Amino acid sequence: DYYLILYTLLKKKLEEVFNREKILFIGIWKEILSKHLTLFPEFIPWIYVKLGNLEGIIIDEFQDTDRVQWEAILPIVEDVLSRNKFFICACDPKQSIFQWKGGDPFILVEFIQRFSSYPIKVEVLGKNYRSAVDIVKFNNLFFSYINKNLELKRELLEELIFGKGKDKEKFEGKEEILTYVLKDFDWIFENVIQESVNDFKGEVICKFLNREKDLEGKLSEEEIKELIKKKILDILRDLEQKKDLEDVAILVRRNEDINELSTFLISEGFKVIGSSFLKIKESPLINAFFSLLKFLNYLEDEIAFAGFLSGELFESSSNILKKYCEFKLIGGNLSLVDFVKKDYPSFWENYIEDIFSAKKYLSLYELCQYIVKRFRLEEKKKKELAYLYKFLSIILEFTFKGGDLEEFLEYWERYSEDELEMPKDKSAIKILTFHLAKGLEFNHVILPLFWKEKSYTSDLGLVFYNGNIYKGKKENLSNEGKKGWYLEKAKTKLELFNLLYVGFTRAIKTLYILIPEIEKTKDFSRFEVTRVFNKIYSFLKDETENSSL
Question: Which reaction does it catalyse (predicted)?
């Protein structure tokens, strides 16, 4: 209740500010447009005045359209069709991986039903212009096998939605839920068979990662990650030896994985382009580093000094800031700088004064290298090394252009992340999430099928179903509320198969799939994607000797 009240008050306050400042927040334009076009259809002629003569509408990636967006443009679509103009949408429900942002592939079904009186032409694009022959064959076999094998499909979906074994959840409406989700699955993967137009075979390589046989006990998540890193390194070294390292991508689930893997590969001597580098300004380590540089440029800047102390450059510095806050609460009147000089003279002399003295004779890049060594950042901040190396690369490039510290401080605050992005290198390994990889292609794709899914919970503890709102924990909901809860969970679980499809269809020449032996891992039930792949693969292996596998 508290969060809902807080949300309502905040929303109301934001709307007041937007109205007063005449600001249109980009996140709500579609709701405003939908509301006005529905209530006031006379706005449509005004839209044509602004847009000019509209001969037709084309929407790409239609499966990622959310319902509010669709309702916003639906009156215009209706008007276009009523005037015998055209409406074209390209939709692949198998690639619907943005449902967490509201993307709804089933809008297409509703569209076809709604406009059934119009001459609708549904064209299935069965040619694959990207991938090699064996990659297309593998995907045809893998996904069509799930779709036609009702027993396997039902077993997978039941396990994902209701759990298994002693953790299996009981719900009297289970059969209804499964019938509903099986129908959705069949529609999503209805047109999965494709034909490659390429004349090269390519390769799909499934690498099952097993621990040494003489070791016993369950693997930790970190141990599995180390196995995956080692296997990725082996693959890259092999490609490097074959002089085929150009255009390699590694697909991961989370931005944190990008940072960790980037750091590892950089330490092994590879050039890396990671999509999360665009978030370099959000790195706590880099922000603390930048605050220290600001302070070194002007020793009276106590805000910058506080930013450095509260950051991650020096492990004990946050305690210094905490002590200063306590000092101020009891009436202390020293500035932060004077407080540190008085109460922490060793820290001030050995670090701040030492670095400030070095600043007088070092270039900007040399100064930053000195700071890295002084605080032993490469040793202590291994998980942040990708960000650190990127930051140092930017500083090195800036130093080559003759820039000094003060100029760099202005440059860093003024320029956007996109402008800070380093030039692309064809030999650099690209590391990106499934969502960022969608629509892209790479010669070689490495796909570690190892990530832990979060336990499913409904947003704000609310369930919206059949025009009603149900509040509370799942076990306390009515049967109708539970039904809505499970249907929402089912949608998120269906998306897992879409993620696999997107990942498997990015490769041109080679697809490497890395599968750890999760049965020996702790908390293995949470690694759903690995379990799903293993189960499908086992069924296929028993029934076919297909060369793709």
Answer: Couples ATP hydrolysis with the unwinding of duplex DNA by translocating in the 3'-5' direction; ATP + H2O = ADP + phosphate + H(+)
